[in-house]
Amino acid sequence: xxxxxxxxxxxxxxxxxxxxxxxxxxxxxxxxxxxxxxxxxxxxxxxxxxxxxxxxxxxxxxxxxxxxxxxxxxxxxxxxxxxxxxxxxxxxxxxxxxxxxxxxxxxxxxxxxxxxxxxxxxxxxxxxxxxxxxxxxxxxxxxxxxxxxxxxxxxxxxxxxxxxxxxxxxxxxxxxxxxxxxxxxxxxxxxxxxxxxxxxxxxxxxxxxxxxxxxxxxxxxxxxxxxxxxxxxxxxxxxxxxxxxxxxxxxxxxxxxxxxxxxxxxxxxxxxxxxxxxxxxxxxxxxxxxxxxxxxxxxxxxxxxxxxxxxxxxxxxxxxxxxxxxxxxxxxxxxxxxxxxxxxxxxxxxxxxxxxxxxxxxxxxxxxxxxxxxxxxxxxxxxxxxxxxxxxxxxxxxxxxxxxxxxxxxxxxxxxxxxxxxxxxxxxxxxxxxxxxxxxxxxxxxxxxxxxxxx
Length: 455
Hints:
Structural class: alpha+beta
Distance between the termini: 52 Å
Helix content: 10-25%
CATH architecture of the largest domain: Sandwich
Largest sheet: 6 strands, mixed
Shape: globular
Number of helices: 11
């Protein structure tokens, strides 16, 4: 096997396609043709496609028999939780919503009893209308032969195709659901950056069967498959226990992968104490391949008894330098911009108000999910351009605005510059979480007393 590539090892593993980038060439692998057995050429290209993150493009061609094959595979990382997205289709604009369906996702249209099972199709980037068109084309493909061989079955398919046509004509509203255990599917929000009343999303903890379908197994399951019970042997292996005292004293380093290009990187972790708040874990990652830098904050104290909502009126440029801790469960809202972003979009951050809003703006500018690029509808591009200008005005303190942090876990913090006195520009409210909020954090089914009885 001969492998040739012009991409240096220091370049990102997954890069954006660009005609000006001389390094964005495919990797060529000489491989056997499955058709005639001669040697053909496989070309691999690792790149990033708008709305679909990292992908692996594969193309094979054989000079001997002219056999060729093209395929696309997701190169994205499996998310921590699964994602279930439901969208209500009520008008023509909804039919053109862009849709990303990964290999592991199941697509359901209840009104016509349509279900496309997981792993029955390759991952695709399309629209709601495109999904229905592809389904219709697949059903009609063998109809001429089927009408002679199985007239009754052909008639049933013709009847079902009429249902699809009626749905595509929007004679009545319908809903579409994507259930993706990998968490890598997406349905466009045509009202971005504002909230989408026609779309609902739900994150869930995968079952053991879903983990296995994604090729994920625990260490215990791997040990059982290999015939080890894990009971014998010394667990200490000379490693110093990771105690709280050790966390406070030093910066710990462990290997990870870059969230931007997926290249090997290192994450530094340190426990610190925030005055008038609590202890937190700060993790920072720097990628030597693409230069991407990120920091993330985890609370060291678990979930609080009540949720917390912090409202700050930004009336002076000095307010932008206030320290802020936004946990991964905390949503951010700016009412004047009609803008809201969930906690998972940015993760945990320990920075300033200015730094946090810059992170939001950077996420919007580089991520085509929020707008930008050739794949985005013109109306969203225009709306996003206006929004980004207004956001930039807020960051530069050219206008007053309100920042709202809503954290159901109660682990977020915004600096009170008047501490220990009350801050006249800031309101901190504690509230009892709803059942849905507890469900999202896995608290409804958590058993904290007598849990050993069921073991």
